[in-house]
Write a structure and sequence with these properties.
DNA polymerase, domain 1, 5 strands, Rossmann fold, alpha/beta
Length: 212
């Protein structure tokens, strides 16, 4: 790789890359079963609301007002909030790999994600993401959501890194294509091993750890 194109910054999604998705369909399906909710009704109300919620224009309480507690329920808001937060689980292998990669190559690490404020804050704190992430370009903070290409342009502005020196790891094909359209080399993340191999092809090897 030419030195002029050496990778300086890593862009990352959170859900599906570092952690499980925070509040996606399968989580809502589990919630419907656990709390005796009508799933199709909850899904319809969610889809009418989630872009505003993830865009940082609704609080979690306002989201719950619209999607769950628009009628009296036999469970409390606190119980439902705890269930939402409990859906987040880490991918320790990927988290540790990114930590090592950052240290070895002196990378700047920036998250570019669609997440609602309270859940995003919980996930950052719970899994200590701020210990290795330099900036969070989260939809709830910047009021832009993928697939809006402007969220990537903003991330590039914050990073102060040319697109050709950035690699983006993302598990949604459309978002990969949008980033690539801006000149950002991107990896469609499906599993740890293939992502390690693709990063190595960009010059980002981590020989201190297993390359499985």
């Amino acid at each position: 790789m030419k030195q002029s194109n050496k990778i300086a910054t890593l862009f990352l999604d959170i859900g599906g890359v570092l952690l499980t998705d925070g509040w996606q369909h399968q989580s809502r399906k589990r919630a419907a079963g656990a709390f005796g909710l009508n799933l199709s009704e909850m899904e319809e109300r969610h889809h009418l609301t989630f872009d505003t919620y993830e865009g940082g224009k609704l609080t979690l309480e306002e989201y719950l007002d619209r999607v769950v507690f628009y009628k009296k329920r036999p469970f409390t808001r606190a119980q439902f909030r705890r269930f939402i937060f409990a859906q987040s689980k880490p991918y320790p292998e990927m988290i540790e790999f990114v930590r090592r990669l950052k240290a070895r190559h002196r990378l700047q690490v920036i998250v570019v994600s669609n997440e609602a404020r309270e859940l995003n804050a919980y996930r950052i704190r719970k899994f200590k993401l701020d210990r290795f992430v330099d900036a969070f370009v989260s939809s709830c903070f910047v009021h832009l959501r993928k697939p809006d290409a402007d969220i990537f342009r903003l991330a590039l502005d914050i990073a102060q890194t040319p697109a050709r020196k950035v690699v983006y790891i993302e598990n949604t094909p459309m978002f990969v294509q949008i980033a690539e359209g801006l000149g950002i080399r991107s990896i469609l993340h499906t599993d740890y091993r293939s992502t390690c191999a693709k990063l190595a092809s960009f010059g980002l090897r981590n020989d201190d750890g297993p390359q499985r």
